[in-house]
Amino acid sequence: MDTPRKVIVGYDLCEDYSRISCYSYKKNEAITISPYEGNEDGLIPTVMCYRTDTRQWLFGEDAITGAKSGSGILVDNLLSNLENDREIEIMGVKYSAQAIMDKFLRRTLTLVRDYFPTQPITKLVITVRNTKPYFVEKLYDTLSLLGIGRDRAHIIGHEDAYLYYALYQDRSLWMNDVGLFDYGHEGLSYYQIRINRWSKPMIASLEKHDFSDSLEADLLQQKNADAAYVFENLANSVLYKQIVTTLYFTGKGFEGGWADRAMKSLCIGRRVFYGQNLYTKGACYAAKELSGDKKLQDVLLLNDDMVTSSLALRVYKDGKISEVLLLDAGELWYKTGRSYELIPDGPAQLDIVQRNLMSREIIYHKIVLNELAVNTNRTSRLKIDFTCSDKATGVINLTDLGFGEFFKGTGRSACYTIRLNAERAWQQPSPSTGKMILCSGIRALRPYYFVAGCIRVYSIEELCYYLYNYIYMIDEIGLGNELFDWIGTELNLPERADRLRQLFRQKADLKTIITVILCSADYYTEKEIKTVIRLIDDILKMPIIKRRCLKAADLLKKESYAEAAREYEQIVHSDEAANLTPEEFGDIYHNLAVAKAHTTGVKEASRLFLEAYERNNRDESLRQYLYSLLLMGDTEQFRKKIEEFGLNKELEKSLLEYVRIKAEEATLTDEYKRLMQLSVLKEQSDPESFYKKAKAIINEWKEQYCKR
Asked: Does 425 have pLDDT greater than 60?
């Protein structure tokens, strides 16, 4: 054999026999390696034998000979053993099925080394009949034990090998459809390649017909069984009205000449070829293509397990509506799998475009996410996982992840299916009032903690949200190398991190750094980013006391009551407070009272509302003060203050009525009902249930308090 530029190997691995071929660049074809002289078809029995006298392992014909002579123990069914993780015990020693397969592959591949002693295998393609994912993964793991990783090895089915073999022949042989009859130990199967020359690229699709029920592998051994008659009828029925001008026959079942007459009749008007090396040579041609030496770049190969439709999800990306692939035509359905994370902005719905490669039909799918009931104001993050349950069905799984510590996720999931072979007329996509923002980077396992606000963020979108909503704390937000390192490593955004580090070294202002971070995701629009930039300018121009007032008000708005209270107390006792007007001072006391009402209680809040009113003279402060008296049950002080402030009876009546209505509404809340249930448990003298429920309620209160 000539010395090629690459060592290209095709390996047909079957339960009964295996074959190996290499590509000859001199002859421009795959050449089957013969393990023994006189064995021109390259058959290698897929068996191993352990010689009990020499403790050596034999393979192939040597293994069979050794077992027959009684000098060794035969091990067969290597593929099924591997699939089922069977252990084989020999002379008291247990061998895993993978270890046996490793020995078989290692020894058979030495045949390649005999032809190319100094060159490693460039590309190896193994073709198998069983393409179940679990078995294929086991086979990949076994190859890795030989030092052949996935960069050099590929595993394909017999259907794929047939496609490569047929299309590597002279084009005159596949001007029309091409058929293959395979009669092996699993029975008879028929494969037909259909060529669509009008598409670009050309499409070669494959259909499979299983006739193993009609023509089993052992039918030839049965008496009174006319296998030739059965085969001829099956062949004529499957080829009826089909424009098939080339036929291939392969498989040990066709040996013996019993089908010669049927083959001869099928030759009329067709080219017919018979041989046992089709799959190994097809695998060799596949290896050549995968190595980069392409001959079929203008042909798309679709076997019976490949999907013929693509699915594209419409998302908001890089400032515009784009499409990302959920499914690509030509993928094996059982290997499909893509995941994205999305943030709904507006009505939560998925817009999916389905394009059929064969018919060129386009179908539009709109999936409304009512089942999840997620937030639609950019405060929910959805994980979308796409797979195929079979060749005709796509499955979309959605999970509500929430939005970090800002908005807890519900954990709800929903599942939707799309029929990939459904026929439906094209419909124009209906205009959507919202969009699905495609998340940038990944969610971090290790969050970044901001002392200002006591917030942990897990994604670039949460970081943008934090900066946008906590902009009044700009003096306390630490933006430096620690944050930039986190962006690069934890969020997997190294280029953005490098840009931020460069700006930091150049002593760029805070506004520039914040702008770069906000532009790192599609969470905020250009208009919103410009607004926050202007706001930063306004904040930086303000006196410190004004900034602190805005910061405290923002904390109060976000219901961070404990932090807001601390900030307002610091403002009240600061030297800069002397520059505030009485009205401004009164408003600060009013807001401090609101924060205290949610943390330390109504009593202190009541005092602060009174001080607020005495300074700002606002009706709202007075009302809140009077409400606080009623909430404390101090009706005597309430009436005294009504008279002292000269308020009319109508106002007094409306205040009392408002508190009465709110008290009634409180009895309808879930919280009140839980407390009543707790009271019942106490009266029933059920201490275990009482303390368990009380502890759960108290823990919830603690959690709510910590958030404030």
From this structure: no
Torsion sign, CA atoms 674, 680, 681, 683 = positive
Helices 278-290 and 158-167: angle between axes, nearest 10 degrees: 80
Whether 530 shows a pLDDT value over 60: the answer reads yes
- Please, which residues bridge with residue 413 across strands? 399
Residue 202's φ and ψ, nearest 5 degrees, are: -60, 145
Torsion angle of the four alpha carbons 640, 645, 651, 653, in this order, in degrees rounded to the nearest 10: 10
Phi first, then psi, for residue 375 (nearest 5°) are -65, 140
Q: Which of 6-20, 28-42, 348-362 has the lowest mean pLDDT?
A: 28-42
CB 419 within 8 A of CB 411: no
Half-sphere exposure of 623 toward its Cβ, with a 13 Å CA cutoff? 10
Token pair belonging to 274: 């018979």
What whole-number distance in Å separates Cα of residue 511 and Cα of residue 532? Answer: 9
Residue 455 has what pLDDT?
A: 85
Long-range contacts of 143-152 (CB under 8 A, 24+ apart): 143/105, 145/98, 145/102, 146/102, 146/105, 146/106, 146/109, 148/121, 148/124, 152/121, 152/122, 152/123, 152/124
**DSSP code per residue over 139-187:** HHHHHHHTT--TTTEEEEEHHHHHHHHHHTS-GGGGSSEEEEEEEETTE
Q: Name, in order, each residue with C-beta under 8 angstroms of 80's C-beta and a sequence gap of 6 or more.
A: 15, 86
The 10 Å Cβ neighbour count of residue 527 is 7
The separation between the first and the last C-alpha atoms of the chain, rounded to the nearest angstrom, is 79
**Cα–Cα dist 326/339, whole Å:** 8
Cβ distance 529 to 518 under 8 Å? yes
Minimal CA–CA distance to 594: which of 616, 617, 625?
A: 625
| Three-class secondary structure of residue 594 per DSSP | helix
Distance CA 634, CA 636 (A): 5
Please count the other Cβ atoms lying within 10 Å of the Cβ belonging to residue 185.
Answer: 15
C-alpha closest to that of 525 among 632, 650, 437, 643: 437
Q: What's the pTM value of the predicted model, to 2 decimals?
A: 0.69
34-39 contact pairs (CB < 8 A, 24+): 35/60, 35/61, 35/108, 35/111, 36/61
Q: With cut-offs at 50, 70 and 90, classify the pLDDT of residue 261.
A: confident
Residues with Cβ within 8 Å of 608's Cβ and at least 6 positions away in sequence, in order, are 589, 590, 592, 593, 596
